[in-house]
Amino acid sequence: MQGLRTKLFQKFSLNQTIRRCTYCTSKVFDAGQPTASSHPDLLSEGEITPGITADEYITRRKRLLDLLPEKSLAIIASAPVKMMTDVVPYTFRQDADYLYLTGCQQPGGIAVLSHESGLCMFMPESDPQDVTWQGQIAGVDVALDTFKADKAFPMSKMREVLQNMIRRSSKVYHNRNTALSAYKDLEPFRKASISGKVKDLSAFTHELRWIKSPSELKLMRESASIACQALLQTMLFSKTSPHEAMLAAKVECECRMRGAQRMAFNPVVGGGPNASVIHYSRNDQKIKDGDLVLMDIGCELHGYLSDLTRTWPTSGHFTPAQEELYDLILETNKECIKLCKPGISIREIHHSSVHMLCKGLAEIGILQHKSDVQNYSKLNPTAIGHYLGMDVHDSSAISTDCLLKPGVVITIEPGIYLPSSFDVPDRYKGIGIRIEDEVLITETGYEVLTGSMPKEVQHIKSLLNDMSTPRG
């Protein structure tokens, strides 16, 4: 009997040991942001951010060094934390240049790039009280092991180390948008600035970010797909809940449920006359029956943004005047997309859009003649589009006169905005319409990244009248 007990005990102990080995895991190292070990469902081995490997970040830095003059230095600070109240911060979003070059998503760091030292990162130091309240942060070890910096120091060493690096440099480039007094107040930096040796880095970083890599384009396609699905669900929802605030909440919920980290910008939800305010953001009105609603939305997926606009009648039915104007904007949208290809510029596409819209508005009777560009500009003071990527207006240092190349993503967004005070026939007053798509320039032409989102009049009517629930 004793022998049986011993065998059963040994068997039970073995099973318990196996069970413990199966279900108990060692503590995963916290790098202050997702890694392949902490979030294997999100990142693959070798990736710093989802879809983008450490090797790609290293290549980006090498390409930037190739653009920088010999013996020059590039200083890129992370974005600052902005406070809502004394203890409550706004949601943090990393500076695009800092993220593009390091992959680090946290505030408080400074990256320095030079031919002599490669990537040197100055990292915030962990304070036990801050960790208790805010969680773990990435320090020197993470800079070396995860972000693949060549050198790394705590911020307390920045003054000592960076001063010597600046003294040895012929020119200093920095990101003016996130410049910090921590390095700007250093004596060598001040001297370099006075002598004209300090320059803005964006001319170089924006050139690199202008043409997207295959991994970047994959994220942009996914971001566009999320935004399209979210806006489609919101369009259906608008039939029963025609309130600007509800539609803004709905589209954000749908984006986040599909994996987006945040909206690319505060959604524009303009019902009726509010649609004629180009960047309307109050979103506090009920949309009247028979009015159009203009929604300009986008989301952010692992640092890459989407941006699209659709305009539709929440009732499911266009008035003759609404449909007349909508057809003109839609035709302009489609014709401008056809122009997208390598070798043309946004400026040239814009001029074509102005010609098409002036001609169409003159035929309708809103403009007196097709060459009335001055009055047209009052009805649409915007450009036909902009570059898109890690920022909504991406690579802003690149002129819209530059000829487009494969890998560049732009928006095509013709619109017409007729305030109630404008001298036009009453049936057109208070109408605002914009149709915006994302377009990738390819080797042979273009790819519409938001092509899955309906914009044809008949498709919108069918969608709202056949697939959505009627208002109660």
Please state how the strands of the largest beta sheet are arranged side by side. 6-5-4-3-7-8
Please compute the radius of gyration using only Cα atoms: 27 Å
* Beta strands, count: 19
Number of helices: 15
The major sheet is characterized as: 6 strands, mixed
Low-confidence stretches: 4-25
How far do the termini sit from each other?
Answer: 77 Å
Give the helix level as a range of percent: 25-40%
- Can you tell me the overall shape? globular
Estimated share of beta-strand residues: 15-25%
Mean pLDDT: 92
SSE-based structural type: alpha+beta
List the keywords.
472 residues; alpha+beta; six-stranded mixed β-sheet; globular
Itemize the secondary structure elements and their pairings:
Elements: H1 2-23, E1 47-49, E2 52-53, H2 54-67, E3 72-77, H3 96-102, E4 110-114, E5 118-123, H4 128-134, H5 140-145, E6 151-154, H6 158-167, E7 171-174, H7 181-184, H8 187-194, E8 198-200, H9 202-210, H10 214-237, H11 244-257, E9 262-263, E10 268-271, E11 292-297, E12 299-301, E13 304-305, E14 308-313, H12 320-339, H13 346-364, H14 373-379, E15 409-412, E16 415-418, E17 431-434, E18 437-441, E19 446-448, H15 457-466
Parallel strand pairs: 3-7, 5-6, 7-8
Antiparallel strand pairs: 1-2, 3-4, 4-5, 9-12, 10-11, 11-14, 12-13, 15-18, 16-17, 18-19
Helix pairs in contact: 6-8, 10-11, 12-13
Characterization of the model:
The chain is α+β, with helices and mostly antiparallel strands and 472 residues long. Helices cover 38% and strands 16% of the residues. A six-stranded mixed beta sheet has the order 6-5-4-3-7-8, sandwiched between helices. A three-stranded antiparallel beta sheet has the order 9-12-13. A hairpin with a 2-residue loop joins strand 12 and strand 13. The chain is globular, with a radius of gyration of 27 Å. About 5% of the residues have low confidence.
